[in-house]
Amino acid sequence: MNKLDVPYKIYLDEKEIPSSWYNVRADMKTKPAPLIHPGTLKPMTFEDMRPVFCDELIKQELDNDTAYIKIPDEILNFYKMYRPSPLTHAVFLEEALGTPAHIFYKFEGNNTSGSHKLNSAIAQAYYAKKQGLKGVTTETGAGQWGTALAMACSFFKLGCKVYMVKVSYEQKPFRREVMRTYGASVTPSPSMETEIGRKINAEHPNTTGSLGCAISEAVEVAASTEGYRYVLGSVLNQVLLHQSIIGLETKAACDKYGIKPDVIIGCAGGGSNLGGLISPFMGEKLRGEADYQIIAVEPASCPSFTRGKFAYDFCDTGKVCPMAKMYTLGHDFIPSANHAGGLRYHGMSSILSQLYHDGLMEARSVEQTSVFEAAEMFARVEGILPAPESAHAIRAAIDEALKCKQTGEEKTIIFGLTGTGYFDMVAYEKYNDHVMTDYIPTDEDLAKGFAGIPNINL
Amino acid sequence: MNKLDVPYKIYLDEKEIPSSWYNVRADMKTKPAPLIHPGTLKPMTFEDMRPVFCDELIKQELDNDTAYIKIPDEILNFYKMYRPSPLTHAVFLEEALGTPAHIFYKFEGNNTSGSHKLNSAIAQAYYAKKQGLKGVTTETGAGQWGTALAMACSFFKLGCKVYMVKVSYEQKPFRREVMRTYGASVTPSPSMETEIGRKINAEHPNTTGSLGCAISEAVEVAASTEGYRYVLGSVLNQVLLHQSIIGLETKAACDKYGIKPDVIIGCAGGGSNLGGLISPFMGEKLRGEADYQIIAVEPASCPSFTRGKFAYDFCDTGKVCPMAKMYTLGHDFIPSANHAGGLRYHGMSSILSQLYHDGLMEARSVEQTSVFEAAEMFARVEGILPAPESAHAIRAAIDEALKCKQTGEEKTIIFGLTGTGYFDMVAYEKYNDHVMTDYIPTDEDLAKGFAGIPNINL
């Protein structure tokens, strides 16, 4: 069955874990646009960011030039717990599809946070600890990022305050309890602990919360609590830097076994996984050393790349964060309530936005029932029940493999399997009961979101 | 930190997956007592078992002599999806405890079933398929075994009917949906589909079900549906045979890296994990080639080994199954409702019972709050949130390591980490909220269970 001379699962030796992160910005001819201050419209400086972010992380955020940044030993030590992650040859999927394509996936779900988020969480917790801080704050929706951060803070004995969107806090108690088991405080948002929370509760007494509101609360608490800073699990340059570990390991495994990918596929919400997975391959492409077809996959119900505008916009609905230039649906855009599968962010990493704008990668959107179809098939043949987010990449990988079946091409496809779906069984239940529906926003729906994008030309 | 010259996580090469299971019965001087027919009290023959069990599995059940049984290629092929499982050096736990002991754990949770149950599920599904059957039936409580069987049946395109204890079906919908995603039918038990189910529903209209009742339903359906057989995830000799893969891999990893275990620890419910983990080590002990301290860990609220009787008893409360000689609390014994952590079975594998009776292993019981204390500590330092069942072994391993701290002994301790606790967060929530309580049955409580054990002397 295994048509290539490679193991089914490639585990690098722990000595082969990359010792530096790779900063793709160093090789970009057009650098990603800087974050700007919403008042002055000037690029955010180190000092501007200090009240909210950790010093070392701000340096990483602003560094467009250093290609390789050494991973501190303490972080490498933690990575050893769950890395290197396997690069798996999807032989059972290939057989089920009857495709001549070779399919591989880099699986980031074999850790208790259940996703790749831990790669950046541990780095951010480490730098906070090194700075002598007492703790960090963050927001979480479904809870993958919050869980990862709780694990990381527990490891470094750092305080961790998580603001969890109220509807998730109540409807997803399992993730909440994982965070609490790791010693994090988890507060349903909007809460009565913050000014913005009290304001929102007063205006909307029955609100079930939103990610935008949770961000605002977490930022307020970080800025007003001594020894605390705010951390974020996606979108930012620093996050893509940390997540480059995914791509670097993938590349090392490919090089070790002579695997030459033609197509690289990742799901894209804020861009943390996709940006990490593709980074060293994109680096080769930017330096003219190799070419790859790189595909971002997003939900049809939240199509930032495929139908968004490339513009400066607010990163959060509460407008407390700096503005970023990115593909955006507008900071007021909220995906349809029927959308179950994560990847709900209105914007996109500035790095990925620039690369996409420059034609260095492509994007496509997929509808959720077809995503769950792919998820079910994958679960049955490959034995891993994927997170709905990851299943967007599976969908696209299957589609590419089926194209190869038609053309007879023996392409090598690599996709990122970001995590497991154990905490997303409510969505699977909808699919199993055949009550899951699709929704594609109309042009009028999108126009409402676009109307909120400020008109800034820098 | 790593005091031994071994990797943090030992992954054997996939070519090093054992090609045969090891049947510890072949080396036992006193063989485990045979299953007997409850009517005739005669040992169950191949023909007696055929209406309910698959032919090849009956052969394995009755085979006390063949030491090594070849693993069919189709099963090895499936094992490749998630095996070899890692043997992890618990350096972070050692450091947190400040112990001179070396602690290792064999982790079986990196698969979607979340536990070691898949090792036997795939074997049982394979033999059912090979026999040309249409499907299998089983019962499940919390759902680990049902999930594993659903995955296995899906792989071989075999029907899978799971009878799930009604209270779990309603309160643990996530596991139910995982099973459905793999195409299994999941029926809350007692159902109206079977004679025994209708009878129990008529007698107890509001019953939330029990494992004993679910077994009876699954056996009835298997015996009355053409092309169906019944399968079971623990207790039976065949299950321990399949689970020997855990111990064989552990032993291979130890031999490869010169690790010499002094103490081997496993949690024990029906005995599937413990029996599998210890098998090759017990084989050496039985053959006089090596000595190990082997410890079974059970909940204080369901203390089959430490407070049970060694006697013939019914394997199920419904008395539809054959009788087994084992350490038992009586087939009517039901652990206190406050007991959250699995391992609720009243009896124990006949193989392990005989080995324990012959003084070849020891047993201890632990209380559940101390188990969750160990679980929390382990989760925080080793990054894996354990299943409550597995945490019984963690508790004992920590206790042994702390003894070494007092004595200064540099013992090597290996324990089995059978699975993850992602579907057990309700129990963790109780622990996090400090409302978890302990209960140790009184002698009077046990006497009630003992009263139901039939008086059979063979």
Helix content of chain A: 40-55%
Mean pLDDT metric of chain A = 94
Query: CATH architecture of the largest domain in chain A, please?
Result: 3-Layer(aba) Sandwich
- CATH class placement of the largest domain in chain A: Alpha Beta
Any low-confidence stretches of chain A, pLDDT <50, length ≥5?
Answer: none
What is the helix tally of chain A?
18
Most extensive interface between two protein chains, with residue counts: A-B, 45 and 45 residues
Approximate strand percentage of chain A: 15-25%
State the strand order across the main sheet of chain A: 1-4-5-15-10-11-14
Q: Looking at CATH, which topology of the largest domain in chain A would you report?
A: Rossmann fold
- Overall shape of chain A: it is globular
- Rg estimate of chain A, integer Å: 21 Å
Q: Could you give the distance between the termini of chain A?
A: 55 Å
Tell me the structural class of chain A.
Answer: alpha/beta
The assembly state of the depicted protein chains is homodimer
Number of domains of chain A: 2
> What can be said about the biggest beta sheet of chain A?
7 strands, mixed
Strand segment count of chain A: 15
